[in-house]
């Protein structure tokens, strides 16, 4: 059987793989992207209307990557002729003694020359009366925070990639991978594709794909859920008036202004889901998450409390330290890999761009040392887990 030949193969066309296909094609590479389900499916990590994008992050490496993320989205938006990022301002808030201290975020932004405001509870209540918080709460406001229109952005990557000549194949699971010297052949049913470079962006299916290379990582796939409440006081949550926000405590919650679903606001818990197998996970509600989120809303955002009008389940692929993996494989430098650790959509385009650097240049100018595969925690079989970010 003869193989179709390309410069690069992208395995997985969710948020990150679609970004990689776009940036590879933009750099002139002949690229094939392969997706096991239909493009835009809801079985992985990247569906639904919205994801938070923010410069406010816990280390300078993330803040620097977030700056590059905004630039990357601007490029895609221009190519796709569509707005993909909606700036709302971003508010990190929580109890002064909360489990996720704000000082680290402030220090990382200081190190990267990012402007922000420190707000006490009266200032937060005055600006956004929807927050029914006590005086023990404080916050950081960063004006560039906002929303990436997730499904729209993935479609934009795919559309722009195709326009640049990328061949995107859907409903095609990669079932075999053979490495032969500098050449990689992947098999999809009766068809095979060959290229000198492979990019793995398999999200929750990273573990079975990495098995083809004899690589095991301590990953945990969890089933999360987004909850849309028909807010009683919708005006207080209008886009343009209300920010994206993250509750910096354990449990951690986050939410959006009205966006994507009419007359409803999305609020949920971060990393509150149970471990699942991505092939058998089911799509049913996790009542424990619903209960925790509803209680939080009742206490701190009572104007958002109303009937739940939509509930969407979605997967996280978690590393034990919640940091990304962006690297080439130790014994196969022509294979690069990204794992998003449940907070990567905002970075989907810039990670895709970085993967295109790794594939086409053998390295990247971006500082991705913190996301290396050889970090000690990824070598442990039962590592300690820290999922708060
Ligand atoms: C509820 C929820 C809320 C989130 N909120 C935010 C947020 O506010 N901000 C933020 O930045 N991030 C957020 N995230 C995280 C972010 O969405 C993910 O990190 C990101 O979407 C990961 O994209 P991915 O491409 O790695 O995974 P996926 O989108 O799952 O893509 C992987 C793809 O690979 C395909 N694939 C796997 N194996 C094969 C194979 N063998 N052959 C062919 N195809 C294969 C899969 O079918 C899949 O389409 C959230 C995630 C969830 C679930």
Rg computed from alpha carbons, rounded to a whole number of angstroms: 21 Å
End-to-end C-alpha gap: 48 Å
Chain-averaged pLDDT = 97
**What kind of assembly state do the chains in view correspond to?**
single chain
Domains, number: 2
Low-pLDDT parts are none
Bound molecules: flavin-adenine dinucleotide
Shape type = globular
**CATH superfamily heading of the largest domain:** D-Amino Acid Oxidase, subunit A, domain 2
Q: Which fold name corresponds to the CATH topology of the largest domain?
A: D-Amino Acid Oxidase, Chain A, domain 2
Largest sheet: 9 strands, mixed
Architecture of the largest domain, CATH level 2?
Answer: 2-Layer Sandwich
Q: Structural class of the helix and strand makeup?
A: alpha/beta
Percentage of residues in strands: 25-35%
What is the top-level CATH class of the largest domain? Alpha Beta
Question: What is the number of helical segments per DSSP (H or I, 4+ residues)?
Answer: 8
The tally of strands reads: 22
């Amino acid at each position: 059987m003869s193989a179709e030949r390309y410069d690069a193969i992208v395995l997985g066309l969710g948020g990150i793989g679609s970004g990689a296909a776009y940036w590879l094609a933009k750099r002139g590479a002949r690229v094939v992207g392969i997706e096991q389900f239909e493009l835009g499916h809801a079985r992985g990590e990247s569906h639904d209307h919205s994801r938070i994008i923010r410069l406010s992050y816990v280390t300078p490496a993330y803040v620097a990557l977030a700056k590059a993320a905004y630039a990357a989205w601007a490029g895609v938006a221009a190519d796709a002729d569509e707005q993909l990022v909606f700036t709302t301002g971003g508010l990190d808030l929580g109890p002064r003694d909360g489990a996720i201290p704000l000082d680290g975020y402030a220090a990382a932004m200081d190190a990267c020359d990012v402007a922000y405001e420190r707000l006490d509870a009266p200032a937060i209540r005055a600006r956004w009366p929807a927050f029914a918080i006590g005086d023990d709460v404080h916050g950081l406001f960063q004006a560039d925070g906002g929303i990436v229109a997730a499904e729209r952005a993935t479609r934009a990557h795919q559309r722009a990639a195709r326009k640049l000549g990328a061949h995107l194949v859907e409903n095609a699971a990669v079932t075999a991978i053979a490495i032969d010297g500098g050449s990689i052949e992947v098999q999809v049913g009766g068809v095979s594709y060959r290229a000198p470079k492979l990019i793995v962006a398999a999200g929750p299916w990273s573990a079975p794909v990495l098995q083809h290379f004899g690589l095991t990582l301590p990953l945990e796939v969890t089933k999360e859920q987004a909850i849309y409440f028909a807010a009683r006081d919708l005006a207080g949550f209008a886009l343009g008036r209300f920010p994206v926000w993250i509750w910096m405590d354990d449990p951690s919650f986050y939410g959006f202004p009205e966006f994507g679903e009419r007359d409803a606001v999305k609020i949920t818990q971060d990393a509150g889901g149970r471990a699942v197998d991505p092939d058998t996970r089911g799509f049913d509600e996790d009542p424990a998450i619903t209960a925790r989120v509803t209680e939080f809303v009742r206490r701190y955002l009572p104007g958002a409390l109303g009937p739940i009008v939509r509930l969407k389940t979605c997967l996280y692929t978690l590393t034990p330290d919640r940091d990304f993996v962006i690297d080439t494989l130790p014994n196969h430098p022509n294979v690069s890999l990204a794992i998003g650790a449940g907070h990567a959509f905002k970075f989907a385009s810039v990670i895709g761009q970085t993967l295109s650097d790794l594939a086409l240049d053998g390295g990247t100018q971006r500082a991705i040392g913190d996301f290396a595969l050889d970090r000690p925690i990824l070598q442990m079989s039962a590592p300690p887990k820290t999922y708060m970010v």
